[in-house]
Amino acid sequence: MSVATTDMVNAQSTQKGKQQNPYTLVYDGAITKNEKGKVNIHPVKYKLNGIDIAANVYTPANYNASKKYPAVAVAHPNGGIKEQTAGLYAQRLAEAGYVTIAADAAYQGASGGAPRHTDKPASRIEDIHGMADFVTQYAGVDANRLGVLGICGGGGYTLKAAQSDKRFKAVATLSMFNSGEVRRNGFQNSQLNTIQERLKQASDARAQEAAGGKMIYAGVASITDEEIAKTSTDLYREGFEYYYRTHAHPNSTFLYTMSSLFDLMTWDATTNMDLINQPLLMIAGSKADTKYMTDEAFPKATNAKSKELFLIDEATHIQTYWKPEYVSQAVNKLLKFYQTNL
After folding, report:
1. Rounded to whole angstroms, what are the CA distances from 236 to 34, 111, 277, 312?
2. Which residue ranges does the record assign to the Xaa-Pro dipeptidyl-peptidase-like domain (predicted)?
3. CA distance 183 to 179
C-alpha cells in the first residue's frame, strides 16, 4: 500500500467517530466535551454587517475571565469551515494559552448571508476584521495582544486584512493561497489564455442573477474516487480527499457563485504588501505545489517589522492541514512567533 493510500485509510478510519462529535468537529483530537482544567470550546454567534456569523471560541485550560490572555483569530481555507483545519489550529493554540476564534465566512458554512457560497475578497477580508471585533471584546482577552493566522485562501485574505487592521500585532499564514491570482491566471498560471473568456462568463452570470435568473455555480459539487485518483495536482487531488472523504463536513463545499469571479479575478492578495508593518511569519510545505504563492508574496512585505519564511520539510499543501508531524512543526513555529510578538 502506498504512503498516500495508507494516510487516506488511516484518516478515513477515524471519520466515523468524528461525525459523532457534538460540536461537529472533524479533526483528530477534537474536543468532545468541556471539562474543567482543559481547553474549552464555546460556539458563538454575532452580527457582521447584518449577517449572522457562526464561530467557535476556544479558551485555555483553567481559563479565568478576570485575567488577560493573548488571542489569535484563525481564518479558514477556501472551501473550508471552522470545524476543519482552522479549528484544529485554534485548539492547538488554545492548548498553549491563547484565546482563539475560528469563524465561518459570511455566506458560507453555518454563517448567514445569501446567495450561498458567495466568495468575494471584500467579504472574506471583512470576516477577519469581524473576528477581531468580536474576540477583542471577549472576557479575558488582552486587545493589545491579538495575532492572526490565515490558512490557504484565508492566508491570502489575512495578508490583505493586516495591511489596514493594526489591531493585529503579529501576522502569520500557513500554506497561503492567493485566490485572486489563481481565479485569474489558473492554478500555476495554467489558464492565462482564457482570462477574457472567463471574465465574460462571470459577467454573464452576474447579468443573469440581476435579471432574477438561476444562480450559476463554479467548482465541484461531488467527485468519484476514480476522478480523485486521476487529478494530477497534489493540491486538488489531496484537497478532494480531505474535503470529500477524510475530513468531510456537510457545511464544507468547493462550490462558489460564478459571479464571485467578477470580483476575484481583478483582486490580488499581494498588492500593497508594503503596508504590512507588523511582524510576519509565512509557513509553507517544501513540497507544496502552492508554495510559489508564498514565494511571490514574501519579498513584497518590505516594511514588515520582522519577517520569516518557514518551510515544513516534505509537506504538501493539504498535509499541513492534518498530518500530525507537520501540524506540530507549524504549531511550534507559530507559538515561538506569537510568544515573541504578542
Report:
1. 35, 25, 33, 19
2. 50-238
3. 6
Span 218-233, average pLDDT? 93
* Helical pair 85-95 and 324-341, crossing angle rounded to 10 deg: 50
CA-nearest of 224, 193, 222, 217 to 108 is 217
The CATH code of the domain at 3-178+220-254+268-341 is 3.40.50.1820
**Is 250 exposed, middle or buried, given 0-12, 13-18 or 19+ CB atoms closer than 10 A?**
exposed
Of 18, 4, 55, 335, residue with least CA distance to 172 = 335
Q: Say whether pTM exceeds 0.85.
A: yes
Residue 14 pLDDT more than 50?
A: no
Q: Where do runs of H (alpha helix) occur along 55-136? A: 85-95, 121-136
Largest Cα span, the chain: 58
Grid-cell match 508564498, residue found: 294
Which strands make up the sheet holding 69-75, listed edge to edge? Answer: 40-48, 51-59, 99-103, 69-75, 141-151, 168-174, 280-285, 307-312
DSSP state of 41: E
User: What is the C-alpha separation between 156 and 179, in angstroms, rounded?
Assistant: 7
Q: Which residue has the cell 468541556?
A: 34
Q: Contacts from 35-38 at CB under 8 Å and sequence distance 24+?
A: 37/61, 37/62
Q: What residue spans define the domains of the chain?
A: 3-178+220-254+268-341
How far is 248 from 80, CA to CA, in rounded Å?
Answer: 10
Q: What is the pLDDT of residues 277-293, one digit of tens each?
A: 999 999 999 999 999 99
**What's the pLDDT band for 238 if we cut at 50, 70, 90?**
very high
pLDDT at position 18 is 52
The amino acid at residue 15 is Q
Q: Band of the pLDDT at 3, cuts 50, 70, 90?
A: very low
Helix (H) or strand (E) holding 15: helix 15-19
For residue 156, give the DSSP letter: H
